[in-house]
Amino acid sequence: MSDTDIQDKAINVDTEKGNFKYPENYEFDAGVGLTEETVKYISKVKDEDPWILDFRLKALEIFKKKPMPTNWADKDLENIHFDEIRYYLSKGQQPARTWDEVPDDVKETFERLGIPEQERKFLAGVEAQFDSEASYSRMKEDLEKEGVIFVGSTEGLMKYPEIFRPYFGKVIPTSDNKFSALNSATFSGGSFIYVPKGVKLKQPLQAYFRINAENFGQFERTLIIADEGAEITYMEGCTAPKFETTTLHSAVVELVALKGAKIQYITVQNWSSNVFNLVTKRGMADEGAEVKWIDCNIGSRLTMKYPGVVLKGKGARGEVLSIALANDGQHQDTGAKMIHLADNTTSNIISKSISIGKGRSTYRGQVHMPKHLKNCKNNTECDALLINTNSRTDTYPAITTRGENNTVQHEASVSKVSAEQIFYMMQRGLSEGEAMSLAVNGFVNELMKAFPMEYSVELKRLIDMEMEGSVG
Amino acid sequence: MNNTLEIKNLNVSIDGQAILKDFNLTIPKGEVHALMGPNGTGKSTLAKVIAGHEDYTIESGEVLLDGVNILGEEPDTIAKAGLFLAFQYPLEIPGVSIANFIRAARQARLPEGEDVNAVEYYKELYAKMDALKMDRKFTARSLNEGFSGGEKKRCEILQMSMLNPMYCIMDETDSGLDIDALRIVSEGVNLMRSEERGFLVITHYQRLLDYIVPDVVHVMFDGRIVHSGDAELAKELETKGYDWVKEEFTSATA
Fold first, then answer.
1. Which domain does A471 fall in, by range?
2. Shared-domain flag, residues A119 and A255
3. Last residue of a domain, one of A278, A305, A332
4. Residue A306 clears pLDDT 90, i.e. is over it
C-alpha cells in the first residue's frame, strides 16, 4: 500500500466544511465581559461544590494581576478585548448519551463535521462540545466495565473528586500564565479521563470542540490520568465558523502518566481565521512512563501553543511531533517544552512548519536538563518550508544542559519549493496548485506516518485545501 | 500538420540575448530525430521552451503539436497535450515517493470524478520497473532524492513510459550514465518507439546513438540547425568533432 492509497478512503472534512453556523439560542448566558459575577454565574449554573468556586475566584484574581506574556509574545495579543467576550453559553449542562437526544441544530453541526460517522468507524468514545458544554458524550460499555472514566470537567470534579482533585491544576498551576489563569476562572467542558491500572485502550477516545457563537470564548479543561501501566490515545478536533469579530479559545490540558503508563494526545485543529488560540498543554511522566503530543495547527489568527512534558520519573520519555501551517495573515507560534527532572530520561521534538503568503510560523523550544542529572537525552529537529518570498519563519530554541552524560541535539532547516521543482512537476501534468500541494505533503510526509491513518487522511485534505489559491 | 511536432521560425531570447534564431524542425510520429551540437548552442533552451518554461522570452514562432500551437501555454497544459521532457538534471522532490508522484501525474490526466485503478497501476508500474532493472523498493523512495545519476535517468524513462506521451524530448539523457545504465535506458526508449510516437534526442555525444539509432540527425550551431543527415552523420561528427561545423558555418555566413 502506498500513501496515496489512503486518499481513496478520505474522510470528508475540509476547511470550508466548518464555515457554517446556526442561529444562537441559549438557555444559559453569562453575558459580556468578565467579573466576579460572571465566574459566580458559571459556578452556579453548574451547581458546583464551594471549593471549585473558590478555585475559580482565586484564579480570577491571578488573571487580573498577571501581565500578558512578555517573554514569548506577539503584539497581536493586545487586540484581545476581554471585556467584549462572552464567557459562558450553553443549552444545558447534561450531555446526551445518544445522538437522537441531541438538539437538532447541534446534531446537524456534528453530522456535517462527520463526528457520528467517525465514532461508528473507529472510536472508543466521543465527546462533542458545542460552545461551553458537551452536547453529547458516550463511551463504549465494555470500557465502563473496566473502570475507565470519560466525563466532562464539572462531572469529573463533582462525582470523582478523590481521583481528579489531587491532580487538578497540579501539572499546570493556575498562575502558570495569564491564559491558564483565565481558563482556571472560567473553565467549562473538556474531558476528564481516568484509565485504571493496566488497562490499555485499543481504540482512541475523541473530543470535538465546536465554537458556534460570535464574540465567544471557549475554555475547556482536560485532565487525563493514566494509572500504572495504562495506555490511552486521545484525539481532539476543533472548528469554528468565520466571524467578523474575534473569538478566543483558551484551553488547559493536563496529562498524568503514572509509572509505566503511556498517553498519546493528538490534536488536529482547523480554526477559522478569527480565532485567537492560546492553549496551555503539559504532561507529567512518572518512572518509565511516556507522554506523546501530536499537534497539528491549521488555521486561527494567532496560535500560541507549546506542549510540554515534565519528565519526573527515571527513564521517562517525552515526545512532541508538530505540524503548523501559517496561511496569509496567520501566525503559528508553536513549539515544545521538555523539562528533565530525573536520570535516564529522553525527549524528542520534531517540528515542521509551512508558511504561505504573508503567513508566519515561529518555533520556540525549551529543553531543560539540570546539573544533578545524568544520562538524559534530547533530540530536536525543526524544519521550516517557505512557499512565497514574503513568507516568514523564526526559530527560538532555549536549551540548558548541565550534568553528566547528558546530550542534546538540535537541527534546524529552512527550505523553499523552487520554481524549477514546480516546473518539473508541472511538466508531468500537475497544475501549479497540485505541484505545490504535493511538495508540501512531501515535506510533512515522514512525520505524518506517526499519525493514526484517519487523521493523516484528514490532515492531507486540509493541507490540499489550504494550498488551493495560495499560488498563481 | 497532424502527426507531427513542428517547430516553425522560433526566435527566443533571454535577457535580451538571442538564443534560438529562426529555428525550424519537423518531427513526424514514428521517427527518432537526434539533435547534436557543441555546448551553449541552444539545445537545452529549445527543450525547455517547448515544454513551457517561463524564463525565456519568445520573440516569434510556433510550436505545433499535431497542428495545434502550444507555444506560451502552461507547462501542465503542454504535458497533458502529449509532450514529455526527460530532464538533463531531474529535480529532487523530498518526501514524495516515485509511486505517488507518477500516480498523481496519471490522476491529473483523468476526467473529474475518475480515479486511477490502484491494482492495475501498480501492476503496470512494477512491470516497467522490471524492464528498466529498477528495484521495486524504489517506488517508496522520495523522487530523485539521493539518487545516483543513472538512477535519476532511469526514473525519467520510467515516468516517460508510464505517462504515454505522443512526443518525447530527451535532454542529454546520456550524461552521467555508465555503459550498463546507458544500455538499459536505451532499451527502455527503444521499447517505446512506435508509429504513434515521435522522439527528439538531444545529445552532445554520438555514443547514445549507437543504442538509440536515429532516423535523422541534426547538427545545431548558434541557435539554428546547420546540417541534417542520417545516422552516419553522427558518426562523422564523432571522428571529425564539431570544429568543422563551426568553421563551415562561420565561412558560410561571413
1. 423-472
2. yes
3. A305
4. yes
Look at A245 and A383; give whichever has higher pLDDT. Answer: A383
Residue A320 lies in a domain: yes
Tell whether the model's pLDDT for residue A271 goes beyond 90. Answer: no
Task: Identify the residue among B76, B142, B155 best suited for mutation to test binding to A, counting A beta carbons within 10 A and taking the highest.
Answer: B76
Is residue A10's pLDDT more than 80?
no
Contacts of A77 (CB under 8 A, 6+ apart): A68, A69, A276, A278, A302
- Among A310-314, B41-45, B185-189, B235-239, the minimum mean pLDDT is found in B235-239
Residue listed under C-alpha cell 474531558: A191
**Chain centroid to CA B30:** 15
Whether A390 maps to a domain, the answer reads: yes
From the list A221, A269, A218, the residue with the least C-alpha distance to A246 is: A218
CB contact under 8 A, B95 and A423: no
Q: How confident is the model at residue B55 (pLDDT cuts 50, 70, 90)?
A: very high
Pick among B50, B93, B110, B164 to test the A interface (most A CBs inside 10 A)? B93
Could you tell me if A401 and A434 lie in one domain?
Answer: no
User: Is A72 within a domain?
Assistant: yes
Q: How are beta strands A302-305 and A331-340 bridged, if at all?
A: parallel
Cross-strand partners of A239:
A210
With CB atoms and an 8 Å threshold, state whether B91 touches A420.
yes
- pLDDT surpasses 60 at B251: yes
CB-defined contacts A:B, below 8 A:
90
Q: What is the pLDDT of residue A295?
A: 92
B91 and chain A: CB distance < 8 Å anywhere? Answer: yes
Q: Which of A371, A397, A416 is the last residue of a domain?
A: A416
The tens digit of pLDDT for each residue in B203-225 reads 988 889 999 999 999 999 999 99
Residue A202 shares a structural domain with residue A274: yes
Domains delineated in chain B: 4-94+149-253 (3.40.50.300)
Please check whether residue A1 lies inside any domain of the structure. Answer: no
Give residues 388 to 447 of A whose Cβ lies within 8 Å of B.
418-421, 423-432, 434, 438-439, 441-446
